[in-house]
Amino acid sequence: MGTDNPWANQIVPFNACAFFVTNRPTRHYLLSIALLLLLPEFIWGNEATKPAPSYANGAPVDSNGVFTNDKGDIAHGSASVRVPFMLRRFGTYLRSDKGAPEQIQDAAAQLQANIQAGQPAVTWVGHSTTLVQIDGINFLTDPIWSKRPSPVPLLGPRRYVAPGITLEDLPVIDFVVISHNHYDHLDLPTLVALAKKNPQTVFFVPMGNGKLLRENGITEVVELDWGQTTAYKNLTVHCLPSQHWSKRTLTDTNKTLWASWAVTGGERRVYYAGDSGYFPGFTEIGRQLGPFDLVIVPIGAYAPRAMMLESHMNPEEAFDAASDLGASKALGVHFGTFDLSDEPLAEPPQRFLNTGSSATAAAPTPWIFKIGETRSF
Fold first, then answer.
1. pLDDT at residue 43 tops 60
2. Would the pTM of this model clear 0.85, i.e. be above it?
3. Domain residue limits at 338
């Protein structure tokens, strides 16, 4: 019987074994492609087949019933270091803002242009606050729009540079991740304002922090322990370890958990370190969930070193952490916005970029933004 299909006589049954035996150049080419596609799995493994991480059962709790780190309690320096440090913070009114980050003037327009383009992107609002846009979802890290992160605002460290984006210019925020309860990371006035602006915004917090938000009228709160995950639409939110501590009053030291966060989806994988000292957990997280398209790491508040060593990374350690995590891009934050520590304001970004410039080609690309700047990734 005839056919109207001009390709009918050209279709030949495909014998895979014969094809690979008789077509050596093509065989080698296809095998090379297969190995290239499988290489990331050989290096990083498959999430379904990886052994459970050490943090799978949650954060450790000490004999007093409060949270602690994998290494136990961390040091904060002697009183002879801490007291002068705190006294220096009272000089915030007189301290110069020389070296503070620059702020771009067209931040809202730049952000709006990226929203129209629909590209995965990150915006540095200031301090540890970033706006991340992936898979059509907008989320914030540790949002703070307040002028002073302090229980006594008139005595708190002042803000050198205003937020790069106003609350009014933000797109609809789908969710927020909070790393811990220190005032420069859990800023209640900002969280309340975000919840009022969009009552559907979900606030992901480490264990024990939900009570404070609920007491202030925020209802869409999800508390997670280290190793726990939850789905948000087409993304997965992972609560992960960090090496830090918590304190908001004189009597609540380490009663609430601290954490880092990963947000993974089909389009991009993002990790936010929160506040942390350098610790082996970065390597384990990288092996479990990496590589990451973007890692957001704190690079400031490391001086005096005797006080900050175990709770805040210096720029070189932050770059090493990003490398451990398998980052493609490493965005340095947590510097220059508030008067929080002793190092010169311009020192953290310069040291971070210098470390990246001398690293190998396989190392992350270090990013330092102007406040309000948006880049796609």
1. no
2. yes
3. 44-376
